[in-house]
Write a structure and sequence with these properties.
This protein has about 220 residues and is α/β, with parallel strands linked by helices. It has one domain (about 1-220): Alpha/Beta hydrolase fold, catalytic domain (Rossmann fold, 3-Layer(aba) Sandwich), CATH 3.40.50. It contains six helices and eight strands, in the order E-E-E-H-E-H-E-H-E-H-E-H-E-H. The protein has an eight-stranded mixed β-sheet, with helices on both faces. It is globular and about 50 Å long. The model has no long low-confidence stretch (mean pLDDT about 95).
Length: about 220
C-alpha cells in the first residue's frame, strides 16, 4: 500500500503501476488496516488483473448521507463535489484510467450508489452491506435514469435484517428492491446481488474484495 495527497486529502492506493488504460476502483470509508487487507486479498487472487484500487482516507468531516434524516446531516453532495471536481480529474492526470467504479461498505456503500446515480462519468458501483434502509433511497433511485453499459454489484449479510431496530430490519427488502430497480434500468446481466453469511460486521475486507472483482468481471465480459 502507498499513500498520496490530493487537494489536502490523504488517499490509500495499491502499489501497481500500470502503463495501459485500466479501470479505477475508488473506495470510501476504509481505514488503513482495512485497505491493507483488501489490497492483500486482491494481490493474492487477482495479481494479473490490471486495475487501480484507491480509497479516500476517512475524515471527521466526511458525510456519506445523501440528504438530511434524523442525526444525519445529508452533506453527501458536498463530498461528491470534491470527488467529481478535484479528486477524479487529478487521478486521471496521474493514472491511465479506462473506467471509473465507486465502492463502499455500510453508509459508504449507500454513498457509492448515490454518487453513481449523480454522475454520468461513473461506470458502476459496488455497495457491500449498504445502508439501503435509508429513508427516501428507494424513491430517489426509482426517479433516476442511466446511460447504457453501466454495472452495479450489491451484497448483504444474510442475518443483517434480523436485528431489533425497525428501520435497520428493512435492509434486506430495501436491498432486493434496489437490485430490482437497477435491473429494470440497466438490464439483469449488469446487476448482481449476492448474499453473504453472517451479520453486518463480518469479513468486511473479503466482502469488499468480492465486490471489486465482480464489478471488474462484469465490465470486461459485457464491454
Amino acid at each position: 500500500m502507498k499513500t498520496m495527497e490530493i487537494a489536502g486529502r490523504l488517499l490509500f492506493s495499491t502499489e501497481s503501476v500500470l502503463e495501459t488504460p485500466s479501470p479505477l476502483f475508488l473506495g470510501f470509508g476504509l481505514r488503513e488496516t482495512a485497505f491493507q487487507e483488501v489490497e492483500r486479498r486482491l494481490n493474492k487472487r487477482y495479481r494479473a488483473i490490471p486495475f487501480h484500487c484507491i480509497s479516500l482516507c476517512p475524515s471527521r468531516e466526511d458525510d456519506f448521507s445523501p440528504w438530511p434524516w434524523g442525526d444525519f446531516p445529508g452533506n453527501g453532495d458536498r463530498l461528491f463535489a470534491f470527488v467529481e471536481t478535484d479528486l477524479l480529474p487529478t487521478l486521471k492526470k496521474r493514472y491511465p484510467i479506462s473506467s471509473i467504479y465507486l465502492f463502499g461498505y455500510s453508509l459508504a456503500g449507500l454513498f457509492a450508489l448515490y454518487g453513481f446515480c449523480k454522475s454520468e462519468k461513473i461506470d458502476g458501483a459496488a455497495s457491500m452491506s449498504g445502508s439501503l434502509w435509508y429513508p427516501g433511497w428507494i424513491d430517489f433511485l426509482a426517479s433516476q435514469s442511466f446511460l447504457p453499459n453501466k454495472s452495479v454489484y450489491l451484497s448483504l449479510g444474510d442475518t443483517e435484517h434480523k436485528g431489533t431496530d425497525s428501520l435497520f430490519s428493512t435492509v434486506l427488502d430495501a436491498t432486493k428492491k434496489t437490485a430490482a430497480l437497477f435491473q429494470e434500468k440497466l438490464g439483469e446481466e449488469r446487476v448482481r446481488l449476492e448474499m453473504n453469511s453472517g451479520g453486518h460486521h463480518v469479513q468486511i475486507p473479503y466482502r469488499i474484495e468480492k465486490g471489486i472483482a465482480a464489478l471488474y468481471k462484469m465490465g470486461k465480459s459485457l464491454s
